[in-house]
Amino acid sequence: MDSVKVPVLHNIDLLIRPAQFTVLLGPSGSGKTTLLSILGCLLSPTEGGLEIAGHTASGLGPEGQAEIRRQLVGFVFQSYNLFPTLTAAENIETALDLRGIPPAEVAQQAAAALAAVGLTHRATTYPSKLSGGEKQRVAIAR
Asked: What pTM was computed for the model?
């Protein structure tokens, strides 16, 4: 906080395996958001290290952190953060474009992502016409 150090996380040793369901619980102020921000490369730890899917994430500059986020970290926000002027498929395609997926593969991967969350039939639907659960699934697919 400004120039005052506020120690939040101590001796964290966390391993999350692929397809593992993990719940992060704790009282307000216990460091949940800080931990998630570090895991998402939005904050850097002041001590220790961070490895994500075999890639060292600690000590990276903003560009390196952004690359880790683009390739290895997915965020699902409570407020969905979908672009209102883009269809469900286009919202996913935008994220794939940012990841550098070749244009010829973008539509195919977006369709596969929508199929994985059961929304193939909503590909051309705008967020304003989706239910809350459908918006969340588009965000997950993205």
From this structure: 0.66
